[in-house]
Amino acid sequence: MRFVAIGLLSVVLVFGAASGARPNVVLVITDDQGYGDLACHGHPYLKTPHLDALYAESTVLEDFHVSPTCSPTRASLMTGRWSNRTGVWHTLMGRHLLRETELTLGNYFAADYATGLFGKWHLGDNLPYRPEDRGFEEVFRHGGGGVGQTPDFWDNAYLDGSYWNNGRVVPAVGYCTDVFFERANDFIRDAVGRGEPFFAYISTNAPHKPFHSPRVYSDLYSDLPITGDQQSFFGMITNIDENVGKTRQLLEDLGVAENTIFIFMTDNGSVIGHTVFNLFGSDSPPLAA
């Protein structure tokens, strides 16, 4: 984890010194997606063409470790420190609150960059723990660890939900992952328009349960002898993949792709996909093709 937080800053400094321009950074992290839940990692059924393309042209970390649950991974990602040292070792009951003395990637980038967080934070929902208190100037997020959880907006749902935008609750139209990426893309457009380098942290709650996917994506897997939850789980990942493709295309269209570091990672292992395919062994063998 220290590589991502501290190493990322080092890469930015070295790249900037060599090119004469400060590189933009897009960091995408998904929730409860396992290592095997990607076609580029050998999954025989998942459709992830955009992430496969990113994988094919990227530097891949083959000895990269995360924590077993959401908040600890995010604490390490944001600070570059072992999560227990930051006060974060669980996902609830105050064990997920990132100590206010910790500096985050948002704090480090904020001096020279536009900084934005879109989606899941899960390191505290109240002052002084919110992302807008930790260096992120543009924030569009759900509460707690997932849409519809207790700290989130009352009775929130994956479709047409309400989210916190810089401290205000605002309604949104559309599926949550689409909304978070759309907001991030607007942030990127604005930063490029101002000629300002940007750090966009896109942290999806998908494919975390509840497994709600737009039918157009889950139906891609309806011919497989798997449960409805597994179909939705795969559909949520394909939806993420499509959004990654849209954001990468936007970077191309804006002419900043060559000056942008694009990182994709997941926060911990699969919660349901591993029963269909798991690179390191499975509870059940892959389905017959």
Distance between the ends = 37 Å
Task: Please describe the biggest sheet, giving its number of strands, its sense, and whether it closes into a barrel.
Answer: 7 strands, mixed
SSE class: alpha/beta
Q: What name does CATH use for the topology?
A: Alkaline Phosphatase, subunit A
CATH-defined superfamily: Alkaline Phosphatase, subunit A
CATH class: Alpha Beta
Count every beta strand, where a strand is a DSSP E run of 2 or more residues: 7
State Rg. Answer: 18 Å
| Total of helices | 7
CATH architect. name: 3-Layer(aba) Sandwich
Overall structural domain count: 1
Mean pLDDT: 91
**Helix share, percent:** 25-40%
- Poorly predicted ranges: none
State the strand order across the main sheet: 5-4-3-2-6-1-7
Assembly status: single chain
Morphology call: globular
H and E order: HEHHHEEEEHEHHE
Topology of helices and strands:
Layout lengths: L1 H18 L4 E7 L18 H8 L13 H10 L25 H6 L3 E6 L18 E4 L20 E4 L2 E4 L4 H19 L3 E6 L11 H4 L9 H26 L6 E7 L23
Parallel strand pairs: 1-6, 1-7, 2-3, 2-6
Antiparallel strand pairs: 3-4, 4-5
Question: What does this entry look like structurally?
Answer:
It is a single chain. The protein is of the alpha/beta class. The protein has a single domain (about 1-275), classed as Alkaline Phosphatase, subunit A. The chain has seven helices and seven strands. The protein has helices spanning about 1-20, 50-55, 70-80, 105-110, 175-195, 215-220, 230-255; strands spanning about 25-30, 115-120, 140, 160-165, 170, 200-205, 260-265. A seven-stranded mixed sheet has the order 5-4-3-2-6-1-7. The chain is globular, with a radius of gyration of 18 Å. The mean pLDDT is about 90.
